[in-house]
User: Fold ATP-dependent DNA helicase PIF1 from Schizosaccharomyces cryophilus.
Amino acid sequence: MFSCLSLLKYSRSFRCYFPRMFQRAQQKNTLAYSQAKGNANVNRDIHNYSSDTFQPAVQASEAVNLPSPQTTAPLKREFSNTILQNLDENDAFESSDPALPIFSPTDVQERNTPDTLHGVYIDENDIDDDFAVESEINQRAIPWSSSPVEHTRLTGSMIANANRSTSTLPRLVEEASGSPTTQRPLARSQKNPIKRSRTLPWALDPFRYGDPTPPKEESIKMEPEKGYAKSEFQKSSTGVRSISLDSMPKSSTVARNGRITKKASVSTTASKIPVDSSLFRTASDPNRKRSVPSIFLSDEQKRILDMVVEQQHSIFFTGSAGTGKSVLLRKIIEALKNKHRKQTDRVAVTASTGLAACNIGGVTLHSFAGAGLARESVDFLVSKIKKNKKSMTRWLRTKVLIIDEVSMVDADLMDKLEEVARVIRKDARPFGGIQLVLTGDFFQLPPVPDSGKEAKFSFESNTWKTALDYTIGLTHVFRQKDEEFVGMLNELRLGRLSENSVRKFRYLSREINYADGLLPTELFPTRHEVERSNGMRMQQIHQDPLTFTAIDSGTVRDKEFRDKLLQNCMAPANLVLKINAQVMLIKNIDDQLVNGSLGKVIGFIDEETYQMEKKDAEMQGRNPFEYDTLDVLPYDLPDVKQKKHKLLAMKKASSISTKWPLVRFKLANGGERTIVVQRETWNIELPNGEIQASRSQIPLILAYAISIHKAQGQTLDRVKVDLGRVFEKGQAYVALSRATSQKGLQILNFSPSKVMAHPKVVQFYKQLDSVNGIPIRNENKVKTGPFK
Ligand SMILES: Nc1ncnc2c1ncn2[C@@H]1O[C@H](COP(=O)(O)OP(=O)(O)OP(=O)(O)O)[C@@H](O)[C@H]1O
Ligand SMILES: [Mg+2]
Assistant:
């Protein structure tokens, strides 16, 4: 009788005639599932934060009686909540008040408008379905461009703009993708049943824990291939069931012996690269390396890649700043898109904030969901999504949902979207069977709460317990090579500093004089301070400014709305440069010139002048542009006739041609390279390939100052941080962990009270740690237990 009823409940006609009841039954089902899962999860999870990194710091802090975060927390919490309640995501860490990060009542009111509180989101009704797809025209690649051809592809209205301008950019058109077709909800493959075990038996890093000094040899031998090993559950002394990654089945793609060569790694190549004597590398240069730096994933990164792509597990991977989360995420996206290359809309690339989304070429989680700010009930959100074909299709087609910077996603949003997914996809499994790939570091910037509410971290959501198969931590810090500095940053991360570290951080207040004259980038908590600092520096340069205006395009035609989407983009709408201005590259160009590279504008140049100088230099056997500014060029020529000819040619060329900044970059190895910097593209792209908004701009920003919010994710060789106005938990850690070394870091107003870790986060990571203990590591071999 009971089973007959159950059958009836799930039959098609039952669904048709009693949809609410069906929905409730599904929810009940999942709730039961969640409860069972939740219980199982008491014993859950992984860790990576061995007591090596946690405990000594804590004890040391207690020993010297430093103010703990707990003692200062209530005041700060109140303070930061006041601010956070009234901010949108872009302004969350950037007050408009120069003195203090507090807002005036009008500011608060303005910022409190519903559509700004959660930053950018897409109202699907704003998108024109009938956006005309333009055909491919003139694919001529520019031979002297500093940009890879694929970065100069134009879309939509960009083409019209580009055609109107005198730009010599190649007129390429993105191949437009058609609207996705609605399909039946697809469940996750039955071949990959969801494993509900929690693990964190992570390999301790050979560099950090085995031998503190990196091996001298050219290559570092990683674990030998073990092939497919049976998943092996082990019981720790605390009764925790853990599964070792080492015993996870490995696919052939990543099970191969991982050999990381120093040469291949960005972080280790620098000292080996000779000073670039050719200075110019143009598209026609055979030696020119294109695209992003070639990075070989470490063994732990490869395993996560495998677990996501081949084994299709739902995963949260974390790790301290600089452990390569973003590098790994980009590889995961690439691999998943390749895997689903015929149906790329199966992979939804999203991030909690517009800035993070723009950095990975995705959309915000809100935009993906198509549920606006998602403050309403699940029923309301479901009906809203159902009314919009595009949103509906997205929910039905998505197989993998990637969320970057998940530390800034609120728990309530997570739970709502999880339920929405189940209801819309008519699939009672967590998140309607969508595979989740989450990444971020909860010790960095926290979620922005709704007005009047306290923000809850996503790890506090029910979804966290039910939808994730594994929580995995990356342990090897790539950004800093100095073990001592890594240790100090770890203590900072936890908000517990030893006396020794406090002394060392205080010592870093000293002035640093850089022989080459390039100044460190200053990081500030508020946007106002950033603008003031950059403005002041630019004023001191007595040169004519040149403004580079971004060419924006995309399927969103409403300019205001598109601007809003793009306001989080690292590339500004208007870039004002002057000769001698200090700039920072915001895209990876090749192995040497990467996001964060510092340089100085030495001139503005058009193609003809560039080619002419290159030719002259070749003929004279010298390096082209070996002068401080372009002004000296013609006068340096020995022959008067030649000089005159050149001046005339330059005049002619400059009157008709677009000029680009010629920038002399400082390389990590101490050398220099001078390149012409051309436009690159940033896209805000929906899973179906539709580019909602696109910005084509010179990949440079003024490097005198940037906000801590914008610096999140960056790697910087020269940094100056004033902690005087830091007001949010995680801010000091985010700011200081951008630096690659103590040598290139100056800290003003350091105080242990500025170092605040959220107690819930400390607890979250501590729990993970104390549940599973430390995996024992023996040489290069990872042991699966027993755990302490
Ligand atoms: N496998 C690798 N080999 C060599 N270098 C790497 C590797 N992975 C990451 N890196 C380098 O380490 C630095 C930090 O990487 P990444 O920005 O991905 O770290 P992250 O964990 O995302 O840091 P954050 O939390 O600060 O955003 C970058 O310079 C990156 O190029
Ligand atoms: Mg990152």
